[in-house]
Design brief:
The chain is elongated. Strands 10-9-11-12-14-13 form a six-stranded parallel β-sheet, with helices on both faces. With about 675 residues, it is α/β, with parallel strands linked by helices. Helices cover about 40% and strands about 15% of the residues.
Length: about 675
């Protein structure tokens, strides 16, 4: 094939392919096969359908694009560069997968403007996309008027066989079908190859029928390699179906154009090699040096800059008219777009004294959510089929359902993993949306990848996790999260909070709402806990603080967290009655305390006081950091048991008597 015989479309598609090939070859690392095979569908989508502004990547009403098959990220980087995004220069592409580059080995929203979500683990991207589409549907239902449309965009996804194998995609797509998210369109790169070879070794189901069963509109492009008209027609048909999401199966050849490696696992995750790159150039008639783009190709792609500016200008004009017609709604809309919190929002947070009846911190959480909801209208979320156990219903709103997207109570169903990833999508769609999701703490293990990606992606999802210890009782060791809190504390950029009473629960929500660049996980009790006069918002914001103290230098420090703070408070009273100087420290959040100044940490846990006891109804892992070699930790490093919660706590040593005995042993 000679270059002269190629159409401009073909040249554009090959430009995408060879930027990917050359970048992977230079890095000697990467996945060239997907960009080579998926380039035609990506070109048609970006060139003929997607609305975006390369010079303003965060323009609100842009279409969202998610590359769920994130290993093929050079496809996205090539498109971003070619269409004129300043965030991906040719030098960035030449630095693919290198230290400090803006073209990392998988798409990362915090590294590269134009990348909407961080898609590393397969399946996360399609689940994020469901969240993006839900956010669009919610904001459109809330703010659009019959004569003013200011929220109107699509979420497009390219996913692969690996995404469809991962269970999270099934969870998310099932919910998307139920909700009828008509502006969600997924293009399935059906190339039949995974790392182990042909997908026939493990994956032979009829994916189209599965999506039909989910309630999706399903189409098939049989020749995704060269039939651009069929790809265009399929996307047009998908856009015409407004009451359900669409999945377009696009059958492609992985590594298309490579004479010896196309349609093999060899092109999936490794550079082609010099000889095969040369042969591919000859086969596709690409007579250009590495990283070279013909002027007419670049000129065609860069038309996206003018189109994008025009699209945004039209929207800004519509928004200006909206602000005139609907000033009150516009104020809220503008605030949510920027992430600005409403003035005085935190004044609605409830406070308590020791005279207030003690309830479970999950109940305090419910009270707090419903105190915030009328003012903090950007707060939305729900539970994994545990609403009446997690106590997460917003009483001011109805249920988010098909035809009622304006509502804020989301029923995720028993889909923890997708729930977390969907909330990541909700948070990444618009800076001001504050999504929360809930389940039993032990089931955080079902959604750990999504929680980790919340932290990595720098999004402030709020995880409401109840039944936080052996104190939940009769459901037994399968539901009692003895190791879960400790394991979550090792995730960077995640705040793990175990509030001890009503004040600390309210304060934990204040921290969570204000932290829009890091997620917060609240571990909440099932059992009732007393309220204290001494607990404070200021103390919780610092992670740990003094609840009660004796005159002079303490003989011993008792550190409690969550439901175990009460044990330290009561034990301290008895020790003081025996003449001991005792300090009680509440530590609801280790991460926040670790971030405080050395002076503050010394004021709470002075190095000179080496006699310390920490108490938490969970793993002892990590507590030696605060107790030191002369201290002790009362915890549980084995599984629990099925019995009433108070019995479990007593049998496993979470009693005032055991705290006293341990403290006396430490004191010698």
């Amino acid at each position: 094939m000679a270059v002269a015989t190629q159409s401009l479309d073909e040249l554009c598609i090959n430009a995408i392919r060879f930027l990917a090939i050359d970048a992977v070859e230079k890095a000697k690392s990467g996945h060239p096969g997907l960009p080579m095979g998926a380039a035609p569908m990506a070109f048609v989508l970006w060139d003929r359908f997607m609305r975006f502004n390369p010079k303003n990547p965060t323009w609100f009403n842009r279409d969202r694009f998610v590359l769920s098959a994130g290993h093929g990220c050079m496809l996205q980087y090539a498109l971003l560069h070619l269409t004129g995004y300043d965030s991906v220069t040719l030098d960035d592409i030449k630095s693919f997968r290198q230290w400090g580059s803006r073209t990392p080995g998988h798409p990362e929203n915090f590294e590269t403007l134009g990348v909407e979500v961080t898609t590393g683990p397969l399946g996360q991207g399609i689940a994020n996309a469901v969240g993006l589409a839900m956010a669009e549907a919610h904001l459109a239902a809330r703010f659009n008027k019959p004569d003013s449309t200011i929220v109107d965009h699509y979420t497009y996804v390219i996913l692969g066989d690996g995404c469809n194998m991962e269970g999270i995609s099934g969870e998310a797509c099932s919910l998307a079908g139920h909700l009828g998210l008509g502006k969600l369109i997924a293009l399935y790169d059906d190339n039949h190859i995974s790392i182990d070879g042909s997908t026939d070794v493990a994956f032979t189901e009829d994916v189209s029928k599965r999506f039909e069963a989910y309630g999706w509109h399903v189409l098939h492009v049989e020749n995704g390699n060269t039939d651009l008209a069929a790809i265009q027609k399929a996307i047009e048909e998908a856009k015409a179906v407004t009451d359900k999401p669409s999945m377009i199966k696009v059958t492609t050849t992985i590594g298309y154009g490579s004479p010896n490696k196309a349609d093999t696992a060899g092109v999936h995750g490794a550079a082609l090699g010099g000889d095969e790159v040369k042969a591919t150039r000859e086969n596709l008639g690409w007579n250009y040096e590495p990283f070279s783009i013909p002027d007419d190709v670049l000129g065609h792609f860069r038309k996206a800059v003018e189109r994008g500016a025009s699209n945004e200008a039209e929207w800004q004009e519509a928004l200006a008219a909206y602000r005139t017609k609907y000033p009150e709604e516009a104020k809220v809309f503008d605030r949510i777009l920027t992430g600005e919190l409403p003035e005085g929002w935190d004044k609605t947070l409830p406070t308590y004294t020791s005279q207030d009846k003690g309830v479970a911190t999950r109940k305090h959480s419910e009270i707090t959510l419903n105190a915030l909801a009328p003012t903090l209208t950007e707060l939305l979320g729900g539970s994994a089929d545990l609403t009446h156990s997690n106590l997460t219903e917003l009483k001011v709103s109805g249920d988010f359902q098909k035809g009622a997207y304006e509502n804020r109570n989301i029923h995720f169903g028993v889909r923890e993993h997708a729930m977390g990833a969907i909330c990541n999508g909700l948070a990444l769609h618009t800076p001001g949306l504050i999504p929360y999701c809930a389940t039993f703490l032990v089931f955080a293990d079902y959604m750990r990848a999504a929680i980790r990606l919340s932290a990595l992606s720098q999004v402030g999802v709020i995880y409401v996790m109840t039944h936080d210890s052996i104190g939940l009782g009769e459901d037994g060791p399968t539901h009692q999260p003895v190791e879960t809190v400790a394991s979550l504390r090792v995730i960077p950029n995640l705040l793990v909070m175990r509030p001890a009473d009503g004040n600390e629960t309210s304060a934990a929500y204040k921290v969570a709402v204000e932290n829009r660049k890091r997620p917060t996980l609240l571990a909440l009790s099932r059992q009732n806990l007393p309220n204290y006069d001494e607990t404070s918002f200021e103390g919780v914001a610092k992670g740990a603080y003094i609840i009660s103290d004796s005159e002079g230098t303490p003989d011993i420090i008792l550190i409690g967290t969550g439901s175990e703070l009460q044990l330290c408070v009561e034990a301290a009273k008895q020790l003081r009655g025996e003449g001991k100087k005792v300090r009680v420290v509440s530590m609801p959040c280790c991460e926040l305390f670790n971030e405080q100044s050395a002076e503050y940490k010394e004021s709470v846990l002075p190095k000179a006081v080496t006699k310390r006891v920490a108490v938490e109804a969970g793993s002892t892992f990590g507590w030696c950091r605060y107790t030191g070699s002369e201290g002790a930790v009362i915890g549980i490093d084995h599984f629990g048991a099925s019995a009433p919660g108070n019995v479990c706590l007593e049998k496993f040593g979470f009693t005032v008597e055991n705290v006293l005995a341990t403290a006396k042993q430490v004191l010698g």
